[in-house]
What does this fold into?
Amino acid sequence: MSGYSGRDAVIVGAVRTPIGKGKANGALHGVKSADLLAHSLRELVDRTGIDPAQIDDVISGAVTQVGDQAANIARNALLGAGFPESVPGTTVDRQCGSSQQAISFAAQGVVAGAYDIVIAAGVESMGRVPMGTNILSGSDPFGDAFAQRYSEGLVPQGISAELIAARWGLSRTQLDDFSAGSHEKAAAATKAGLFDNELVPIAGLATDEIIRPGTTVETLAGLKPAFYNEAYATRFPQINWEITAGNSSPLSDGSAAVMITSSDTAKRLGLRPRARIHTATVVGSDPLYMLTGVIPATEKVLARAGLTISDIDLFEVNEAFAPVVLAWAADTGADLAKTNVNGGAVAIGHPLGASGARLMTTLVNALEQRGARYGLQTMCEAGGMANATIIERL
It folds into this structure.
């Protein structure tokens, strides 16, 4: 990803908190959202050794921007982290891809010459700020024209996941097998210390809280469908009702932060470039199926990069629901053995606004651990969108 001036965008640091249960009994529930983000910001600066006064901007994703996450949490968190008052911050919402979009905006700013050093971050405390609480009772965020265009109405994400499973012919056993594998990989990665380089312990939590070692297809088979609804069953008779809490990402709390600069600036400041942001893109997709945008986003980013699916060494595809990744692999031809090699969101968690930066942090480390070159990250997003980003290890 280079500009007309020849500038590039490189990652020189990436950290994340452990992911906690997004419930009242979760380990991070007592940490306010701004403090959760401030922790990652502070640790990122400490690890890189940079003077925070040199940071041109902090761009943070957050989805439910109300309550503890209102009033531009990026600015509040950076001040809480002790950054100079001269450092600005802004908060973006591209739903689940918010902090992946923050990374794209940051990289674009560096390439364009608008920034020398910028932090892209994300946060979500789904236990303190439940999903959907930013939509007030009686409010209509869609409007009349939208309702006329989609007269039958859209559906919740769980129903979209059911529609995907039905269209791609994915069985409950396939979904549960994939999900058990996610826990197995994440547990193995934790035990082997593969996350140690990216984690910044907080509130006594040193490892991801939600991973369940020993999860099997048999144990997941005992879970009931999570989204069954008689009205939707009538409207969509093709649905087999296979989506459960076990093959969906859980409610989660966490934050992550990535520092981006140019190769020239990194050299001048003595920072080590870890990966180059090669190509980034975003697409819109069918808002009814909602979660399938990862397929055209992957195709688009590969085309723009001049690469093929076989050129990619590792993939990080957000496991919002198991059928999303399985449908993506079926249509793109990607190798599942190279996908979410240290487990995914079904096991680790999906703190909405933080997940894009969390996946990027994990991807950078995984490329380094394996001596691999190219990594591709993509995320489905509410409303029918998806981001895709290719990075190159340096």
